[in-house]
Queue: 2 jobs
Job 1
Amino acid sequence: GAGVSQSPSNKVTEKGKDVELRCDPISGHTALYWYRQSLGQGLEFLIYFQGNSAPDKSGLPSDRFSAERTGGSVSTLTIQRTQQEDSAVYLCASSPPYNEQFFGPGTRLTVL
Amino acid sequence: AQSVAQPEDQVNVAEGNPLTVKCTYSVSGNPYLFWYVQYPNRGLQFLLKYITGDNLVKGSYGFEAEFNKSQTSFHLKKPSALVSDSALYFCAVRDSTDSWGKLQFGAGTQVVVTP
């Protein structure tokens, strides 16, 4: 079956611009997660959504970062006024109840 | 708070030799433990997990891992490594009291298998 998909696969932007990253989870998965993978920083949790519950935003690094999940499915991670330190691979994962997380291929963001 | 340590940045092994990638963890409750592998320019692929039951867990591609509660370890092993096993390996933990929660990942271990 279809896995987690993310778009775009690569995004190059200029410092100060806003970007939107999209994640399509596996159908039926009620939990959705965003992580960031940076050189030297490993994998860093950003935010997760579980059904209709309030999202856990504890990992968002600043108020320039936000995410939403519409209709319990597709999620968008938005970074406003991008900075060079935002350059990283942004990974999305989804999960059925009480199970492992399935990861998408990631979006590589480069801020010039 | 939960944490994961992967003490080796890189593991080098010759093809055909046993491969071990080390992982230790810390959680307040019971651990749910996972191993993932990442090939270049790819997302993370699930290898295996420990939730409960038998301490020896078998997973994909001939990998296995042993849960050791007293040593708080979950080392990944493969009896005979292949060149194609060269990749970045991540250990991750989640506290059992937070079943929907985020995974805490280790820093990753680069495995290099030479022919």
Note: Chain B touches chain A through 20 residues (CB under 8 Å).
Job 2
Amino acid sequence: GQNIDQPTEMTATEGAIVQINCTYQTSGFNGLFWYQQHAGEAPTFLSYNVLDGLEEKGRFSSFLSRSKGYSYLLLKELQMKDSASYLCAVRETRRGDYKLSFGAGTTVTVRA
Amino acid sequence: GAVVSQHPSRVICKSGTSVKIECRSLDFQATTMFWYRQFPKQSLMLMATSNEGSKATYEQGVEKDKFLINHASLTLSTLTVTSAHPEDSSFYICSAAPGLAGARPYEQYFGPGTRLTVT
């Protein structure tokens, strides 16, 4: 099984930086994904980490430490359109299905 | 590339009726499709995993006779909610995985979701 924890809500001002933490416990870890989801819409892919370290992609970066069961998503130069829910998802190899298990999501509100 | 569509986007039905939701991968073949349910302000909960040509694998607590899944081809999976009740009202999202042919092994591409309201 797995437990995926992330904060429920975060608020930041436009232009600032926000870091969303995610901790997990799982067997057969095979990658961690971050998704962005606007209200009423499907999740969209942001990042993927399977090895330890930092992956940078424009304003968004994601970090993974497998030994600590820990990841974070870093959002820089926040824009109003970044207001959304951010989902941490862990993939585990179980019966070869490569299922994703999602955290509850962190709602980020960007204020002017 | 990697576009997944769902139809319908919204549906309202009466209690006791059945509703079918379609999930299509438009520009790739999906060896596996997943069906999720999401209640307001909650995360996605996996309902079942569907592989083309075989029976779906349901998560614990999901009634297979109530949520019928058919994965008839490598580009189409359907979810039928049978004898729907108000508590089945939710946002249903499918995802499709191209398997080893994908850019990242078994990455999932999500459809836009279907909002089901049972009255």
Note: The interface with chain B takes residues 31, 35, 40-45, 48, 87, 91, 95, 97-105, 107 of chain A (CB under 8 Å).
